[in-house]
Design goal:
This protein is of the alpha/beta class and 556 residues long.
Length: 556
């Protein structure tokens, strides 16, 4: 049966198990759009407003489901707009495939209209970047792209699609099914060595992260940690991968790292790191463990050989899948009960913070949300000081999920929430967004309206780019530059996109407003008026400025 490249590509995606894609249309991949016309209900195309928002949706979809999030964009400007999602998916270890329309093969190398060398541009950003120049190779390259995105350390793959290749016809059959991939399992010797190193320690810590966990694997790791009494720390923005209600969970190692977590990692004599990419935030700027030889005995377990030893030389490196490794672990006993209990007590105490200055007190709001939100809630956020509330003041049970970018990309939260609602429409999805963060991708409310995937968005409006203002006051006190925002009518904007919307100007009004948001069939946007003084839970902007000025006087 003869079919063109666009039809063959879409049939391969269906065989691989794809059921949803996000994108912005372009003339460079019209053949793919035409093929998608016949797949509605099987492979749905979610029409987005900007390629950056579309790529964020794909990255978040991959992180949430474990299957590659698909994004379709046109060449040149479309691809470069989408690059932010590729970078985010890479740093998040999220499976994703970005399809980019390309100039015809007969025009390549001439700087044709919107031409980009995608291998050169995306090579450093993605796990793999490839261009399909021959229509007959679509099944081969799609099989490799899918497998590359989900195996080892998951990540983004970029596939360029020349326009003439997509209209060429072929009788090559599409793929029949997705490959069944099994994780690499650790050797018995590696498991025994892990047990011996932990048994010989006095202050062990289990550090976990990554995206490719299964429920069975998470439960196995939790059983091991609880029966062994080892304190568990989540890597930056992966606290949803371990039940926070467990007596062994002690916090997240990320931005604004709590002092007890920092001390725990520094003072540990043995660290079992499972599925962790040792990023800057989790290591407090690579200071908690010495580079390249940590003082702590490091056991690093990761499915990718490229992660083991990339920054830190482990005492024991094990290339294995996190779930396969967790299922092999046997309890280990040691005299560290007090070590774990002190850490858990410090974690519990970290939820206590003073009442915040200003109209809406986020300490009170997040305390109410902890008690009210369903156990399978999905929280999302972009970047900014406001992320302390969903990241440090919420407890993720075994069914709750967090979609938050390790890349620190502003504007991720709204598209991620839309992707989550599109993937799992029956679940409650709540996005936390600062006023600056929200405006990075607020146009995607139109995507949500059209797709019927409308989450609840909480806009924490303090009228400033809070993170940068905080750095300004610490380093250049009283010299405000470029961080004050003049904002639109957020309620009016949200209503124009068909959302229920309210402005909450007092803490006492939040609970009723949120209940109305939950009851709304069209999603909701709640604008919360918070004070710029409430820049962190335990230090105001004025206190920051005063401390910086006093330090300058002392040095003068």
């Amino acid at each position: 049966m003869a079919r063109n490249g666009g039809q063959l590509l879409v049939e391969c995606l269906l065989a691989l198990g794809a059921n949803k894609g996000f994108g912005v249309p372009g003339e460079s991949y019209l053949a793919v759009l035409d093929a998608l016309h016949d797949t509605r209900g099987r492979l749905d195309y979610v029409l987005c407003r900007n390629e950056g928002g579309a790529s964020f949706m794909a990255a978040a979809y991959g992180k949430l489901t474990g299957n590659p999030g698909l994004c379709f964009v046109t060449r040149g400007p479309g691809a470069t707009n989408a690059s932010i999602g590729v970078h985010t998916a890479m740093q998040d270890s999220s499976p994703m495939i970005l399809f980019v329309g390309q100039v015809g093969t007969d025009m390549k190398g001439r700087e044709a209209f919107q031409e980009v060398d995608y291998r050169a541009v995306f090579g450093p950003l993605a796990k793999w970047a490839v261009e399909i120049d021959q229509v007959d190779r679509i099944p081969e390259i799609m099989a490799r792209a899918w497998t590359t995105a989900v195996s080892g350390r998951p990540g983004p793959v970029v596939v360029a699609l020349p326009e003439d290749m997509l209209t060429d016809e072929t009788d090559v059959p599409p793929l029949a099914a997705a490959p069944k991939l099994y994780e690499a399992a650790p050797s018995s010797a590696a498991v025994a060595a892990t047990h011996d190193l932990l048994a010989g320690s006095k202050r062990p810590v289990l550090l976990l992260g990554g995206t490719n966990w299964t429920e069975k694997g998470r439960l196995a790791l939790q059983r091991f940690a609880e029966t062994s009494g080892i304190p568990v720390v989540a890597a930056f923005r992966y606290q949803d991968q371990f039940d926070n209600h467990s007596p062994v969970f002690v916090g997240e190692a990320g931005v604004g790292m709590p002092p007890h977590v920092r001390a725990l990692i520094e003072q540990a004599d043995t660290i079992l790191a499972v599925n962790v990419r040792f990023g800057e935030m989790t290591t407090n700027g690579y200071t908690l463990l010495s580079v390249p030889q940590p003082r702590q005995t490091l056991i690093h377990v990761h499915p990718s050989d490229r992660e083991i030893g990339k920054v830190y030389v482990p005492a024991l490196g094990i290339q294995a899948g996190p779930n396969a490794f967790a299922e092999t672990l046997e309890p280990v006993q040691g005299d560290w009960a007090g070590w774990r209990e002190d850490a858990r007590a410090a974690y519990e105490a970290s939820f206590d913070a003073p009442a915040q200055p200003g109209p809406v007190d986020m300490v009170a709001v997040t305390a109410w949300l902890r008690e009210t939100l369903p156990e399978d809630v999905i929280l999302t956020n972009g970047a900014g000081n406001f992320t302390v509330w969903p990241n440090k003041f919420f407890r993720f049970g075994s069914k709750a999920r967090l979609l938050a970018p390790q890349s620190g990309a502003m504007g991720y939260g709204v598209p991620a929430a839309i992707a989550a609602k599109a993937a799992m429409p029956s679940r409650t999805v709540v996005c936390f967004a600062g006023d600056g963060d929200f405006q990075m991708n607020c146009q995607e409310l139109g995507t949500a309206m059209q797709a019927g995937a409308q989450p609840i968005v909480l806009i924490l409006n303090n009228g400033i780019y809070g993170t940068i203002r905080a750095h300004q006051e610490r380093h250049y006190p009283e010299r405000v530059s470029g961080t004050t925002l003049e904002n639109p009518d957020f309620v009016g904007l949200a209503r124009s996109y068909g959302f229920h919307a309210e402005k909450v100007e007092a803490t006492e009004g939040f609970a009723a407003a949120f209940r109305r948001a939950l009851a709304s069939p069209t999603g909701a946007v709640l604008e919360l008026v918070v004070s710029p003084e409430a820049i962190t839970p335990r230090q105001t902007l004025t206190q920051m400025r005063t401390a910086a000025l006093n330090a300058r006087k002392a040095d003068a």
